[in-house]
Design brief:
About 50% of the residues lie in helices and about 15% in strands. The chain is of the alpha/beta class and about 260 residues long. The protein has 2 domains: about 200 residues, 2-enoyl-CoA Hydratase, Chain A, domain 1 (Alpha-Beta Complex); about 45 residues, Lyase 2-enoyl-coa Hydratase, Chain  A, domain 2 (Orthogonal Bundle), CATH 1.10.12. The strands form 2 sheets. A 6-stranded mixed sheet has the order 1-2-3-5-7-10, sandwiched between helices. The termini are far apart. Bound molecules: 4-(N,N-dimethylamino)cinnamoyl-COA (DAK).
């Protein structure tokens, strides 16, 4: 197994990012966050990559949270910096120009749940467990969990999870809308790659704009969101991909999108 804390496996049009600290159940320390940020920057500019998948090394954990050993020693200033940096990295995932899917293959706790929440959507294996146990440690979620979870599943259910710190099964997470699909562990990557390939066939500019419109539009009034949608649609009409997509339909062939 590699010493790298974050692995990147590129098989265009897909890229798989693996958090690789299995002995610590892939807990996120400063070094992991920093390598994750560098990997995201690299992928964002890589035109061969159309869809990104994030998963955890091993069969036990996606990510068991922020690194408790590292956090236990932090001064207030270090804690602030760690928090700001984690939020920045997770925002990069949300704002990546390509769709990002979480393949949750085990424990997704604290910062691990927040990592999955910062992706565009998640699939989980049957053994996966979700939870935000921060309050049991005397802290609270700080990588966006108090903000993204209620937007996804509603305030009441989000507060129940955040305030109890309890763990829930993959099936419960599915019923709440935290994950879109639950499959056996040995079928997880296959299922995620299948949906990723379905997405990767589509126009990359349309994907980037649609992802952004959903995220930005969610937090603004409907009328403003619709204006944003119209203007973005106008911009899309100037792309070669729009011309190619419609031409291909009329010529009864598959489109070849270039992202231009
Ligand atoms: N950090 C560091 N090490 C961890 C870890 C974590 N989150 N989770 C597990 N490990 C390590 C264990 O210490 C153990 O190491 P060794 O003893 O072997 O050296 C190894 O991984 C295997 O774990 P266990 O022996 O505990 O394995 P079990 O199967 O018995 O239990 C478990 C699995 C997932 C139930 C258990 O490991 C566990 O409860 N882990 C902690 C889960 C947790 O509480 N996660 C939330 C962490 S707090 C903020 C920003 C972010 C955050 C908060 C604020 N601001 C910006 C304000 C985020 C906070 C968190 O994520």
């Amino acid at each position: 197994m590699s010493d790298e804390l974050v692995l990147l496996e590129k098989t265009p049009p897909l890229a798989v990012i693996t958090i690789n600290r299995p002995k610590a159940l892939n807990a996120l320390n400063s070094s992991v966050l920093s390598q994750l940020e560098q990997t995201l920057d690299q992928i964002n500019e890589d035109e061969e990559v159309r869809v990104v998948i994030i998963t955890g090394a091993g069969e036990k954990a996606f990510v068991a949270g922020a690194d408790i050993a590292e956090m236990s020693k932090m001064s207030p200033l270090e804690g602030t910096n760690f928090s700001r940096y984690g939020q920045l990295v997770f925002k990069k995932i949300q704002e990546l120009k390509k769709p990002v899917i979480a393949a949750v293959n085990g424990y997704a706790l604290g910062g691990g749940s927040e990592l999955a929440l910062s992706c565009d959507f998640a699939y989980a294996s049957e053994n996966a467990k979700f939870g935000l146990p921060e309050v049991t440690l005397g802290i609270f979620p700080g990588f966006g969990g108090t903000q993204r979870l209620p937007r996804l599943i509603g305030k009441g259910r989000a507060k129940e999870l955040i305030l109890t710190g309890k763990m829930i099964s993959a099936q419960e997470a599915y019923e709440m809308g935290i994950v879109n699909k639950v499959v056996p562990l040995d079928k997880l990557m296959e299922a995620v790659k299948e949906v990723a390939m379905q997405i990767a066939k589509n126009g990359p500019i349309a994907l980037a704009v649609a992802k952004d419109l959903v995220d930005v539009g969610y937090d603004i009034p409907l009328d403003d969101g619709c204006i944003l949608e119209s203007r973005s649609f106008g911009m899309c009409c100037s792309t070669e991909d729009k011309k190619e997509g419609m031409q291909a339909f009329l010529e009864k062939r598959k489109p070849v999108f270039t992202g231009r």
